[in-house]
Write a structure and sequence with these properties.
This protein is an alpha/beta fold. It is 44% helix and 21% strand. Helix 1 packs across helix 7 and helix 5 runs antiparallel to helix 6.
C-alpha cells in the first residue's frame, strides 16, 4: 500500500454562501477527512459544543496562545478572534489523514505561508447577492444589523477569490459537494503527496 501525506482542504466564502453546509455534507460522505476544530473568542451559539464545533476562549487566553505560537493561523473577523491549533493538524497530516478547514481568506493566506505544499484551497461564491442575503436572513441566527454588516463585508471577501486554487459557485448543495469531492480525489493522487510511490515503483522493477 502506498503511503500518502494528508492535505489541508480549505473552504472559504462570504457568510451565507454555504461553506458550513458544504463542510458538514463533505464530512458525512468522506470518512478520511476530519474537521479542524478552531479556537474562538466569540460567544457560543445555541447547539454548539465545546471541543466539537470550537474551543471557546477568553480574549486574554487567546492572546497568550498567540504569543506561544500555538496557532497555525489566526485572524480577527467581525470583532472576534479565530485560530487553528497547529499540533493536531500536523499529527493528522503525518498519519495520511486530510484536514478540512472552514476559515476565511486571512486564515488561508497564513496557511499558504506556513505550508503551501499541503494546502488545497476552494472559494465558494453565492449565485447572487440577493440569494446571499436571503440565506443570511433565513438562518435566523443574527440580527438584521449583523446581517447588514455581513452583506457589506461580502464584497471585500469575494474580491480575494483569485488567491484560491479552485472556485465553485454554490447554486446547488449536492452539485457543489460533488465538485469538492472531485477536487479532493484529484489532489490526493498528486505524485508529491504519495510518499511511498518511489519504493512502490522500485518494487515493480525487481
Amino acid at each position: 500500500m502506498i503511503e500518502r501525506r494528508g492535505l489541508m482542504l480549505v473552504l472559504s466564502s462570504p457568510s451565507g454562501a454555504g461553506k458550513t453546509s458544504l463542510s458538514r455534507r463533505l464530512l458525512d460522505v468522506e470518512p478520511d477527512i476530519a474537521l479542524s476544530v478552531s479556537a474562538t473568542t466569540r460567544p457560543r451559539r445555541p447547539g454548539e459544543v465545546e471541543g466539537k464545533h470550537y474551543y471557546f476562549l477568553a480574549p486574554q487566553d487567546f492572546s497568550t496562545n498567540i504569543n506561544k505560537g500555538y496557532f497555525l493561523e489566526y485572524a480577527k473577523v467581525f470583532g472576534y478572534y479565530y485560530g487553528t491549533p497547529a499540533e493536531p493538524v500536523n499529527d493528522r497530516l503525518k498519519q495520511g489523514r486530510d484536514v478540512l478547514f472552514d476559515i476565511d481568506w486571512q486564515g488561508t493566506q497564513q496557511l499558504k505561508d506556513a505550508a503551501r505544499d499541503d494546502l488545497v484551497s476552494v472559494f465558494i461564491l453565492p449565485p447572487s447577492t440577493a440569494e446571499l442575503e436571503r440565506r443570511l436572513l433565513s438562518r435566523a441566527q443574527d440580527s438584521k444589523d449583523v446581517v447588514a454588516m455581513r452583506m457589506s463585508k461580502a464584497s471585500d471577501e469575494m474580491s480575494h477569490y483569485p488567491e484560491y486554487d479552485y472556485i465553485i459557485v454554490n447554486h446547488d448543495l449536492d452539485t457543489s459537494v460533488d465538485a469538492i469531492r472531485h477536487i479532493l480525489n484529484a489532489e490526493r493522487l498528486k505524485r508529491e503527496r504519495q510518499l511511498g510511490l518511489p519504493n512502490f515503483v522500485k518494487s515493480l522493477s525487481q
